[in-house]
Design goal:
It contains eight helices and nine strands. It is an alpha/beta fold and 233 residues long. Strand 8 and strand 9 form a beta hairpin. The longest helix is centred in the N-terminal third of the chain and has 18 residues. The chain is globular and about 55 Å long.
Length: 233
């Protein structure tokens, strides 16, 4: 099957929620465009930001760093340092030539604890630095997972609202942002030739829901965004 977009190369992926067959190059361009659109639409980053990029040790970090740095190369005024919190994260930061602000391995109980603790740790480090933004690569499934976890516990450990990460329901200083929040996990992993096989039960449920009802993740994301923003008007 040929790629729906370029109509030249062989497709490697069928995007069920849009009906597109995509080759690797067009998939990458699509994800890069979605990243840029999120930054622009929600004003997540500025051309002179001093960024602390947090790598807590998630499976999506290598392709996330790659497309993020490709985007930021167009903005020479941006400074990027890295907080790496796993052995693999340290290796990724080194591979891409990122300045390691600090590295320390943390081992919380769950994926969701890891996201929250990494965010809190980044804020602590930022108190004695001049970082204007904290960037953490959380994807569509992470955003949905945090929302569902909050619903189950009747209190969200964190929210992703229009690309901004709130701890509890509070904004942070400096702001924590994730321009990746509208990118499905399985799509970004295809950039490095990996298939998404989530071990976390909540992520497994989200994946199964998407397989059964293509586009359901975006519907949930948009619904809870509207709910949160309506509640706080």
């Amino acid at each position: 099957m040929l790629c729906t977009v370029c109509k030249e190369r062989e497709a490697i992926f069928f995007r069920k929620y849009s009906g597109e067959y995509l080759c690797l190059q067009c998939l990458r361009k699509s994800l890069e465009k979605r990243l840029r659109q999120a930054v622009g639409k929600y004003s997540l980053l500025k051309e002179d930001d001093n960024i602390l990029l947090v790598l807590p040790g998630l499976e999506t970090e290598k392709p996330a760093v790659e497309i993020f740095l490709d985007m930021e190369r167009n903005f020479p005024g941006v400074l990027i340092s890295c907080l790496a919190l796993s052995k693999d994260s340290i290796e990724i930061a080194t591979e891409f030539g990122l300045h390691l602000e600090k590295n320390s391995v943390i081992t919380p109980l769950t994926r969701w604890d890891l996201i929250v603790e990494a965010s809190k740790y980044a804020i602590q480090i930022s108190e004695s630095r001049n970082f204007t933004k904290i960037v953490i690569p959380l994807f569509l499934d992470d955003a949905i997972g945090l929302f569902l976890l909050g619903a189950l516990k009747n209190y969200p450990p964190a929210w992703v609202i229009n690309g901004r990460v709130l701890l509890g329901d509070q904004t942070t200083e400096p702001p924590i942002v994730t321009p990746f929040f509208r990118i499905p996990t399985e799509e970004v992993l295809l950039l490095i030739g990996k298939e998404w096989r989530p071990s976390d039960k909540l992520l497994q449920s989200i994946r199964e829901l998407e397989i059964e009802f293509p586009g359901s993740r975006f519907n949930i994301l948009n619904s809870y965004h509207n709910l949160f923003l309506g509640k706080n008007r």
